[in-house]
Amino acid sequence: MSPRHRHESRRRIAGRQRVSFPVPDRGRPGRNGEPMRTLRRQARRFPPFFGVAALALCPFGIYLRGVMTATEKTTPAAAAPEPDRNPSAAPLRRTPLFSAHRRLQARMGAFAGWNMPIRYPAGILAEHLHTRRAAALFDVCHMGRFRVTGPTAAADLDRLMPRPVLDQPVGSCRYNFLLNQDGMVRDDLLVYRMRDREFLLVVNAGPAAADAEWLRQNLADKTVFADESAATAKLDLQGPGAFAVLAEFGVDPGALPRYYRCGALSLCGHQIMISRTGYTGERGVEIYAAAAAAAELWQTLLGHPLVEPAGLGARDTLRLEMGYPLYGHELDLDTTPVEAGFARLVSPKDRNFIGRAALARPARKRLTGFRLPGRRAARAGERVWDLDGNEIGQVSSGAFAPSLGYAVALGYLQGAEPAAGGTPVLLGAAPDKTIRAEVCRRPFYADGSVRA
Question: In which domain, by residue range, is 252 found?
């Protein structure tokens, strides 16, 4: 089917069906409710090449050979692409766009307690490359959104985060961290200063509930905390064509905020907050709107011929090409921002914040990029070895990089000093079961349009 016919077909479907809010998931374990044995019969029709490509991609630690076998394997911190089969487990949560994803035949899977689209029928490779070349729309409503207000809000947040908040200008957003007393990362987040005494915090889905509880416990009495996650939605429109798409829906490109700035405007008849941020390395925006407006915004934006939907699989390979960290992989409660490569952002000398003393200590490890010679990728949790077979670190993320044509990985090497570019290493579960690689500077992909 040509792109034009695919868009026309999608518009016809969208015109006949309204997006409804979801009900509890009682679907069977197969994709779109199909029995697993049916998927296995279908999977045998794929030629062997698809198994190799799937092995190379493996986003979120997913062992995507399951595209061939219809069974999925995950690493401990990874997304599981099938609903939890444990009847005692809590049901997966759904975003306001769940019904829309099912109509688009998305492959749904569990991520941080949510039933999320991992990929659409076009596949991760196509979604990734379309984001680099045109524009893709991502559902990221699973992320937490907290509003913090009051006369002591700025001082409180400045005390809780290693990057300054007091001097953050109104209308700006900053990448920041929540730390424990040992300087380890509870979560990484974006901090938006909406007004002098009003902030919006956007946190990761997995630790969102713990973040909310910790913030409530550490804010002053005059600071008001509100969890707005359920009442709001978040869509990311990413790609070099993103501004052209918005222009055709009446948004003047000159009215868009500058990089890492935010502002309010109207889109498709809805009042939204928009920011010049993203997780792909491409020009784009993140759109915040009322949850009730999410379905119409999603459907309208997808009606543009430049826009295709993209799932969490492509989002992972896009961020990995840029060397961006993912919480639960590069960032966790055993890692400081300094060890993750953000020493220039934190200010342990001039301010007093939670975890300050720990950040002044020498780093135990350093986040490092690795380039592999072919399509075969290292997996999260595998070890890094020197050429003599000595273990010197651990892989945190790995995948085939579609924009580059070879595999890349992120991982931690022991020691405070960064390894020199080009240093040869081995990646694998054991010294005799490895892939040869070399230390590589980040970002791996340097041609993104993010600042254009």
Answer: 3-142+232-318
pLDDT computed for residue 55 by the predictor: 31
Instruction: Based on the fold, state whether residues 25 and 116 are members of the same structural domain.
Output: yes
**Residues 164-201 pLDDT 10s:** 999 999 999 999 999 999 999 999 999 999 999 999 99
pLDDT digits (tens, 9 = 90+) for 312-348: 999 999 999 999 999 999 999 999 999 999 999 997 7
Are residues 101 and 38 both part of a single domain? Answer: yes
Domain shared by 99 and 69, yes or no: yes
Calpha distance 324→304 (Å, rounded): 29
Residue in 84, 87, 86 with CA at minimum distance from that of residue 72 = 84
**What separation in angstroms does the CA of 334 have from each of 33, 155, 158, 184, 186?**
39, 27, 23, 6, 9
User: Among the three residues 227, 248, 278, which one is the final residue of a domain in this structure?
Assistant: 227
Closest by CA to 188, choosing from 156, 137, 220, 144, is 144
The answer to whether residue 135 sits within a structural domain is yes
Backbone φ and ψ of 155, nearest 5°: -65, -40
In a domain, 326, yes or no: no
Q: Two tokens at 248?
A: 């055709």
Residue ranges in 171-326 assigned as alpha helix (H): 208-218, 242-248, 294-302, 312-322
